[in-house]
Amino acid sequence: MAEIQKRKHRKMVFLFLLLAGAIFFLLPKTIYAETINEEKSELISPVTSIYGTKVLIIKPNAPQLKMIEGSSQQLYYQVLPTTALNPKVTFATSDKKVVSVDSKGVMKGLMPGRAIITISSTDGSGVRTRVTVQVTKKVSRVKNIAHRGIVDVAPENSMAAFKAAGEKGFWGIEFDIQTTKDHRFIVMHDADIARMTNGSGYVKDYTRWELRRYKIDSGENLKDLPTQRIPELTDVLNLCRAYNMVPVIELKEVQVSELGEFLAILKKYDLEDRAVVISFKLELLEWLRSQSETLQLQWIEKSMSTSHITLCSSRKIDIDTKLHGVTREKVRFAHELGVAVNCWTILKDTEYQRMQDADVDYITMDMIPPALR
């Protein structure tokens, strides 16, 4: 009887081990689904992270870029899924005389022309993508800034307007920021959202998530564009990085107590020594200067008086002035005191040429300059 019990026990153990082995070998390497869309790539299954996956998509942050001859630019892209076992890529250029690219994705515009940069996976998946790069000749030292983006193409301060500026090759984009009820920085010129959206009320009375309910419903080509919503500062900084544009940020409804977080965001995006911050409120600029020696600051005013230039020089702050008060003599005086000059808002070719002749450093415009058309 004891021998029969032992046999039954051994048989049960054998069946258990057999079943366990079958489960182990038949277990799929990915149990759950993997979701990839335009905004998010998220691995849900912990099993996938153990076994690894191959690259499915290489997504460039900007599929078309413009560079100025002699300039360098980092190529930004995403390898999806983020849990790919081997996310390394290689870079190749279709014309080494026009654009070179190194192993880290740093491009250099060598001469006017067009080249294709191919980004290829190295994990055997065969996945690759292409970025078109147009190199243009440098015709002027002036820095072209799109005022609230290209407003003839899309609504002001919208992602579509900023993207259009990047595709045209603007040096920078000017935009306005304010803080929400939950102290997040969003991009909006007016304190009230009524003019530009299908909502109403003050920005400061909404959280950033509450503002996402509203659509931008004023501006050009809305019927031809995807739904435009109020952007966050970080959205625009990411776009600037993709197109190698400089953010020119006007501080609107922002308090001194909130500037520490603002500066931290610029540092996080490696923009402390590249971004330009402008404001009518001198106290905001003075606080930023007390915290950063490298941040470019510009005080907005309308007449560009000699006393204004002298004050800016003493504060190590530049000038952002209305074009009607700009003369070559005033610009020369500002340069002698180490003050750079930005002028706004240019609407015509004749105004653009007059500002170039005055030797200003930046031109903020609601038009596309001849060199970028």
- Shape call: globular
Q: Low-confidence parts, pLDDT < 50 over ≥5 residues?
A: 24-51
Proportion of residues in helical segments: 25-40%
Q: Mind describing the biggest β-sheet?
A: 8 strands, parallel, barrel
Bin the strand percentage. 25-35%
Write a structural description.
The protein has 373 residues and is α/β, with parallel strands linked by helices. Helices cover 28% and strands 27% of the residues. The protein is built from ten helices and 20 strands. The protein has helices at 2-26, 46-51, 159-168, 208-211, 233-243, 259-268, 282-291, 306-315, 328-336, 349-357, and strands at 34-36, 41-43, 57-60, 64-68, 72-74, 77-80, 89-93, 99-101, 106-109, 113-121, 128-136, 143-147, 172-179, 185-187, 246-251, 276-279, 296-301, 318-322, 341-346, 362-365. The chain has an eight-stranded parallel β-barrel, surrounded by six helices. Strands 4-11-10-7 form a four-stranded mixed beta sheet. α8 links the parallel β17 and β18. The longest helix has 25 residues, at 2-26.
Please give a quick description of this structure.
This protein is α/β, with parallel strands linked by helices and 373 residues long. It contains 10 helices and 20 strands. It is globular, with a radius of gyration of 27 Å.
Architecture blueprint of SSEs:
Blueprint: H1 2-26, E1 34-36, E2 41-43, H2 46-51, E3 57-60, E4 64-68, E5 72-74, E6 77-80, E7 89-93, E8 99-101, E9 106-109, E10 113-121, E11 128-136, E12 143-147, H3 159-168, E13 172-179, E14 185-187, H4 208-211, H5 233-243, E15 246-251, H6 259-268, E16 276-279, H7 282-291, E17 296-301, H8 306-315, E18 318-322, H9 328-336, E19 341-346, H10 349-357, E20 362-365
Parallel strand pairs: 4-11, 12-13, 12-20, 13-15, 15-16, 16-17, 17-18, 18-19, 19-20
Antiparallel strand pairs: 1-2, 3-6, 5-9, 7-10, 8-9, 10-11, 13-14
Helix pairs in contact: 3-5
